[in-house]
Amino acid sequence: MKENRKIRLGISIGDFNGIGCEVALKTFEDSRMLDFCTPVIFASNKIISQQKADLGLNINFNGVRDASQSVEGKINVVNVWKENPKIEFGQATEDGGKYAIKSLRAAVAALKNDKIDVLVTAPINKNNIQSEDFKFPGHTDFLAQELNGESLMFMVTDSLRVGLLTDHIAVKDVAGAITPKLIRDKVMTMEKSLKMDFGIRRPKIALLGINPHSGDNGTIGEEDDKILKPSIQELFNKGTLVYGPYSADSFFGSNSHGNFDAVLAAYHDQGLIPFKTLSFGKGVNYTAGLEKVRTSPDHGTAYEIAGKGQADASSFKEAVFTALQVFKSRKDYTTWNKNPLQKQKTKRAS
Prior knowledge:
Blueprint: E1 8-12, H1 20-29, E2 38-43, H2 45-55, E3 61-64, E4 75-79, H3 94-112, E5 118-121, H4 139-146, E6 149-156, E7 161-164, H5 174-177, H6 180-196, E8 204-208, H7 223-237, E9 241-246, H8 248-251, E10 262-265, H9 268-279, E11 284-290, E12 293-297, H10 314-338, H11 340-349
Parallel strand pairs: 1-2, 1-5, 2-4, 3-4, 5-12, 7-10, 8-9, 8-10
Antiparallel strand pairs: 6-7, 6-11, 11-12
């Protein structure tokens, strides 16, 4: 990336029958946002024009054939398709899923080819995206296949970070999916992300138990004693500051999370219910561990308010700022680790 150009921030529109387009366009309706980055939306001129008209948004945009043609100071729209699919706000239609994936695939291709620098994904419907050539439960699994690295679903705000050992799997399969290797991989991915993406030199990580009260010494399940505790001890002995397992029911209510840089939950709802309760509307879904930066707002398609102009763009805006900050943090991390002598000189000078 040329040093004198603004970060190109790609946006996949998600399900156009939901609020994805609305929150993305509302974010950049504030022209001051264009001082921070160059937005590149992967959709079509017709779709964006119709969303703009239906929602009464005061924006102008620049249509381009390729993300590399994006113009700074403008909202750019890459024309991924020529047809004009019907928008049916609030409805989970086949087209809603079909064009969400077209937008996502085009954005990811541009990301892989360095035509955009980071990606923010608007919400999809996990049901209508399914097809013969797309069989993933969500963004995270697809991105893990397309982008190198070990993915971690990481929900973040300025003061709270919650990652997941297991994400989009049934509760009945959780205990069987958690292995010593999975724990090691997720903890190491989280530790690396905290250092590289968030600038924390010696991160402290809390691991939540699988069973109620972390199994009560085997009374309510043996997984915590037999799998979690030995894995935590092994990682700690190797220098990773990971602690637990902690009983999930009281961990957040007692503000114990404030003693750690991040929390690793055993399964989806164990982590996301307290996260969204404490930070809904300000949270960001970040896919850590990949070679490229991807974020998303912490909400879904919100069909119930789609097309009514009522959607709050706060979380999408936070997703934009998080993507930009992580991108810059990674550059700084790479620079500092490539130039250890410079680091020493800076320390002596201070």
